[in-house]
Amino acid sequence: MSASVNQTDAGAAAPAKPPLEILLCAPRGFCAGVVRAIDVVERALALYGPPVYVRHEIVHNKYVVESLKRKGAVFVAELDEVPDGKAPVIFSAHGVAKTVPQNAVARGLTTIDATCPLVTKVHREAEIHHKRGRHVLLVGHSGHPEVVGTMGQLPKGSITLVEDIEQIEALEPETRDNLAWVTQTTLSVDDTHHIVEALKHKFPKIVGPHKDDICYATTNRQEAVKQVAPLVDALIVVGSSNSSNSQRLREVAERVGCPITRLVNRAEDLDWEAFSNIRRLGLTAGASAPEVLVEEIIDAFATRYEVTVDTVSTTTEDMVFPLPRELRSEAAE
């Protein structure tokens, strides 16, 4: 009898996995600015050989940074960590204050600027406003590298950071009739709209950009999340905690009523208890998160669920940014 029970147990089928439908947001993941920034580091490594120095994380994603480290990139916080010599130093996609390249030139360092062209656009807007005598109000998050870089385009005292509507109430610039506003490129579209409307209400003569500063990729990814989040039991954003656009995606999902929202670096960070009773999962990735990590998350769920994957697409992206001139094939040769 005992032998019979053992045979039955050995031949028993594994319990069926519960079904799970994954709704994959599109667009998601890498944007043109991130692709360009990573390509800048890899092209520089190919041209100059390692080491290549990078000031700050080239993009806000640990997986990407570690991958480039293995290829010979050395990430530093400030220029004083870069030794004298011919090894190039690359400025990250978030942009830098004007003093950074000036100090690099003073030391005779070879510099390569991987600033996203859409961030550079904001820098140029701020400079033009300043030249026209306007005080600039920058809508953004204090301490974010992009904000530090944008504020560093203008002389101290000529640009003011605005983080929320409450701050606007106490704002009394000396030149209230000669103001302009620009924004960080990776903000929440909805939050920024409310802040800008409050600025316009308090300062009716304030001048804004000809075209929205929030980048196309940030906008597109938030729109996809708005479509998917109301349809699912939980939504995961693949991205790093220091990634502004990834944080905003999670907030957007939460705001439209998704009961469970999580920002995770990769599959090993999943809180399985939170997903124990779901039947429909939304999945997206911040603009600096590679698709391989999205696939890793899907594979992790497939070990516990009978997974089907459907893509919800809100638009198609075809934006491409060229490499800096010094790294293009003809210039390098």
UniProtKB/TrEMBL annotation:
It catalyses: dimethylallyl diphosphate + 2 oxidized [2Fe-2S]-[ferredoxin] + H2O = (2E)-4-hydroxy-3-methylbut-2-enyl diphosphate + 2 reduced [2Fe-2S]-[ferredoxin] + 2 H(+); isopentenyl diphosphate + 2 oxidized [2Fe-2S]-[ferredoxin] + H2O = (2E)-4-hydroxy-3-methylbut-2-enyl diphosphate + 2 reduced [2Fe-2S]-[ferredoxin] + 2 H(+). Isopentenyl diphosphate binds at residues 60, 94, 144, 243-245, 288. Binds 1 [4Fe-4S] cluster per subunit. Gene3D superfamilies: 3.40.50.11270, 4-hydroxy-3-methylbut-2-enyl diphosphate reductase, catalytic domain (3.40.1010.20). (2E)-4-hydroxy-3-methylbut-2-enyl diphosphate binds at residues 60, 94, 144, 185, 243-245, 288. Keywords: 4Fe-4S, Iron, Iron-sulfur, Isoprene biosynthesis, Metal-binding, Oxidoreductase. The keyword Metal-binding applies. [4Fe-4S] cluster binds at residues 31, 116, 215. The active site is at 146 (proton donor). Transmembrane segments: none annotated. Its cofactor is [4Fe-4S] cluster. Dimethylallyl diphosphate binds at residues 60, 94, 144, 243-245, 288. One of its GO terms (molecular function) is metal ion binding. It holds the Pfam family LYTB. Its EC number is 1.17.7.4. GO terms for biological process: dimethylallyl diphosphate biosynthetic process; isopentenyl diphosphate biosynthetic process, methylerythritol 4-phosphate pathway; terpenoid biosynthetic process. Pathway: Isoprenoid biosynthesis; isopentenyl diphosphate biosynthesis via DXP pathway; isopentenyl diphosphate from 1-deoxy-D-xylulose 5-phosphate: step 6/6; Isoprenoid biosynthesis; dimethylallyl diphosphate biosynthesis; dimethylallyl diphosphate from (2E)-4-hydroxy-3-methylbutenyl diphosphate: step 1/1. NCBIfam families: ispH_lytB (TIGR00216), PRK01045.1-2 (NF002188), PRK01045.1-4 (NF002190). Belongs to the IspH family. Catalyzes the conversion of 1-hydroxy-2-methyl-2-(E)-butenyl 4-diphosphate (HMBPP) into a mixture of isopentenyl diphosphate (IPP) and dimethylallyl diphosphate (DMAPP). Acts in the terminal step of the DOXP/MEP pathway for isoprenoid precursor biosynthesis. This is 4-hydroxy-3-methylbut-2-enyl diphosphate reductase. It comes from Methylobacterium terricola.
